[in-house]
Design brief:
Layout (H helix, E strand, L loop, with lengths): L5 H10 L5 E7 L10 H18 L6 H12 L2 H5 L4 E6 L4 E6 L6 E5 L5 H8 L4 E6 L4 E6 L4 E5 L9 H7 L5 H34 L3 E5 L1 H10 L10 E2 L7 H30 L5 E2 L2 H9 L3 E7 L5 E6 L2 E5 L9 E2 H11 L3 E5 L10 E5 L2
Parallel strand pairs: 5-8, 8-9, 11-15
Antiparallel strand pairs: 1-2, 1-4, 2-3, 5-6, 6-7, 10-16, 11-16, 12-13, 12-14
Pfam family, one: baeRF_family3
């Protein structure tokens, strides 16, 4: 399994030249008996890939391309521990598996590029965050959204401290000893916090650029913030002992911090689009946006998370050829392809649900000029 980052998405865009590219996305389930059908549904999606490969032009080694997918389909242990969604990508050189914290539509496609919209939605949605649950002797990092919170960094990620030894050193003695022990514990705590801060930055924040919410006792909030070099650490945290909360309780407390930030970002970007309408800098016509994307003019692209449009982008002449559905051997998701083009040109892609999309066409764009 791999974590999703902007750097990885760029790498996947580059890998898309090694076609044909096979993509599967499907909803999965965390617990029995709901997850009992996930493995069967994955096998059925592989059959759809086989059918598409049979119609695909070229001399692709079908057996070799499908081998890692079929191996995963038979890995019983893998299917016992699922999250809410799964994306599997493969071509002649690479094979990638992503477990997601949100459901995705069941979909299988063979194309010249990977179907990356499910990953772009995870990467570009503004409700994602990290949580650092911190004490003087332990640290756990979580990744979450409005619905889920899962650990991504635990004891193996961070340095370990022997809390029992600290307690022994802090047992009552004479006043001077107590002061010396207190000073020592403070120094050790600060040293440990620095090590945790460094690990979070290097292992997670630098790549993901997700906002970080600190959950720790009130007396540790100020200490950690004073020494932290993490530019993604939010000013507001949760001042409580994280070990006193179950995961779902922790998610609710953290979402109280994150929800206003999430809503503000989404509203601001949608308002920008609405204000730019009529100025020539806002467009929701798919064909026009495609031309602008080719010219590198798209600064921000909204993509409807719940829509797919079957077709292909042609270069001679520059136009979109729409086809009936994804059973067509050359069908790709036009919205996905335009989003990839925008990312390659240095633009930003924001994947949002249908109910808040500023248009009904499947996409909307803000132009640089």
């Amino acid at each position: 399994m791999q974590a999703i980052s902007k750097q990885l998405l760029v790498e996947l865009l580059k890998e898309s030249s090694d076609g044909p590219c096979l993509s599967i996305s499907q909803a999965t389930h965390r617990s029995f008996p709901e997850n009992g059908q996930d493995q069967i549904r994955f096998r059925n999606l592989i059959k759809e890939l086989e059918h598409s490969l049979a119609q695909h032009e070229g001399k692709a080694d079908t057996a070799k391309l499908l081998a890692p997918f079929k191996q995963l389909a038979e890995d019983t242990d893998f299917w016992k521990y699922s999250l809410d969604g799964l994306v599997v990508l493969g071509n002649a050189k690479r094979f990638h598996i992503f477990k997601l914290q949100r459901p995705v539509a069941d979909f299988a496609v063979v194309a010249d590029t990977f179907h990356l919209k499910p990953l772009m939605r995870v990467l570009q949605t503004s409700d994602r965050y990290h949580v650092l649950a911190l004490s003087r002797s332990s640290a756990t990092l979580y990744e979450g959204n409005r619905y889920q919170l899962d650990p991504v960094g635990t004891a193996s990620t961070f340095p370990h401290r022997n809390h029992e030894e600290e307690i022994a050193r802090s047992l009552p003695g004479d006043r001077l000893e107590h002061q010396e022990h207190s000073a020592t514990i403070t120094q050790q705590t600060e040293s440990y916090f620095r090590a945790v801060d460094k690990a979070v930055i290097e292992e997670f924040s630098a790549a993901s650029e997700l906002p970080l919410i600190l959950v720790t006792l009130p007396e540790h909030q100020g200490v950690f913030r004073k020494l932290s070099h993490n530019n993604f650490l939010l000013e507001q945290g949760v001042a409580i002992d994280p070990t006193s909360l179950k995961t779902e309780e922790l998610r609710k407390r953290v979402w109280e911090v994150m929800e206003p930030i999430h809503h503000q970002r989404t509203r601001q970007e949608i308002d920008r689009f609405k204000q730019a309408q009529g100025t020539g800098l806002a467009q929701d016509n798919i064909d026009d946006v495609y031309q602008a994307a080719k010219q590198g003019r798209v600064q921000l692209l909204f993509v409807d998370a719940d829509q797919r449009i079957a077709g292909r982008l042609l270069s001679d002449p520059d136009r979109i050829e729409y086809v009936g559905d994804f059973s067509h051997p050359e069908a790709e998701d036009v919205l996905d392809d335009i989003a990839e083009m925008v990312l390659r040109q240095g633009g930003e892609v924001l994947v949002v649900p249908s109910d808040i999309m500023p248009s009904v066409t499947g996409l909307a764009a803000l132009y640089r000029f």
